[in-house]
Amino acid sequence: MTDELRHLFDEKTVTADEAVKCIKDGDTVYLGTCTSTAYELGRALGRRAEELNDVTVTCSNLGKDLDVMGMPGKFHGVSYFMGPLERKALRAGTLDFTSVHLSQIDIWCRETVPPDVAFIEVSLPDEEGYMSFGATGVALHTFILEKAKTVILQINRHAPYVYGEDNKIHVSRADMIVNFDEEIFEVGNLEPDPQIHAISDFILDEIPDGACLQIGIGGIGNAVGFGLQKKNDLGIHSELMTDSLMTLMKNGNVTNRQKGFVPGKSTVSFTLGTKELYEFVDHNEDMYYMPFTVINDIRNIAENDNFISVNGAITIDLLGQVVADNINGNQFSGTGGQVDFVRGAQLSKGGKSFLAATSYNENRKTGKRISRIVPALPPGTAVTTARSEVQYVVTEYGCVNLKPLLRKDRTRALISLAHPDFRPELTEAAKQMGIL
Known about the structure:
Layout: H1 3-12, H2 16-19, E1 28-33, E2 36-37, H3 39-46, E3 55-60, E4 75-79, H4 84-92, E5 95-97, H5 105-112, E6 117-122, E7 130-132, H6 134-137, H7 141-147, E8 150-155, E9 168-170, E10 176-179, H8 194-204, E11 212-215, H9 219-227, E12 235-241, H10 243-251, E13 266-271, H11 275-281, E14 287-289, H12 292-295, H13 298-302, E15 307-312, E16 315-317, E17 322-323, E18 326-327, E19 330-331, H14 338-347, E20 352-356, E21 360-362, E22 369-371, E23 373-374, E24 392-395, E25 398-401, H15 407-417, H16 423-432
Parallel strand pairs: 1-3, 1-6, 3-4, 4-5, 6-8, 8-10, 11-12, 11-15, 12-13, 13-14, 15-20, 16-23, 20-24
Antiparallel strand pairs: 1-2, 7-9, 16-17, 18-19, 21-22, 24-25
Helix pairs in contact: 5-7, 8-9, 9-10, 15-16
């Protein structure tokens, strides 16, 4: 790095508490998304609570506590994808939510909550003064920066330097720089239970060698990902980079040779997993990060033949409507990219879209089993994926392609995927509804 660049860094470097002094009443402040969040700047903002009023803080899927998420009158949150902290804030009335396909995240950034001040966590700089947006920032930070009047960078040596499109920012773009190192929050990989093993086995039987993969977050996605170690010549085009996909790359199962979109590279938007994963993607030339608007574009997805999309579901009704982001209308996560990949996979030559769930959920307090396949959705429930979009539905009792089926056959197929204890009442309900 030249002396001129070093001087520029020194000139712009301040403490976190000094940096947030620029924020005033009524401002909108972007904190970050998932594994690219400027937590120390967020903490410093919280320390100014007594001085501020009516500040909007925008974020998604936070992994560490921040006081600004629970200070009514002082700070109010807005999110497009809920994690545990956002759910808590939503229940407390200190956060608003909006549903958005990740392929259209630019609308959220530019129109829904354009920031006055952007907190952007970045990697260590390279010799030319550029810093990478890190584990998640490539997904949307170029759109955030389009509207931000003030840009504050938080340099974190633990943030990986990732390659790709719109993947970095130059020191000259920053108004202020804060140096603060802290580990990125991790999400482990739980051992799948027998139900999830059975579901993954059904899906694995449908995945050919040479397939291109998108795997969603959660136990089912992980089980499928780790289960693909017997497949060959796979490709990756997924909004999310996971430990299971890393394992496939390390083992040589992934070659990306048969991809139509950016062949030879694993194309993703963000990373969530273990420390090993964050270290794996750091300066990894086999990885190529791109914004959600590119990765989740159905036209780009469809360029990859034999595209396989695997996502989860919370509830499915007898018409085939899938709920994946809310429970009886209570927001749990977000629309995310499910619909993008459901559509894109089916446009791919030989592509398949799978929506998977265990057949029942067990109430933790009572131990009572609750069927995930229901006659009708409760009032207030928001549909994530419309019945006309759904292709394969999978539970531990089977895998069925609903796409070509008539309504009666579709309903019978869904009942066959339910736990046997619930099938008689589902059948009776279907008769009462006039479907059977």
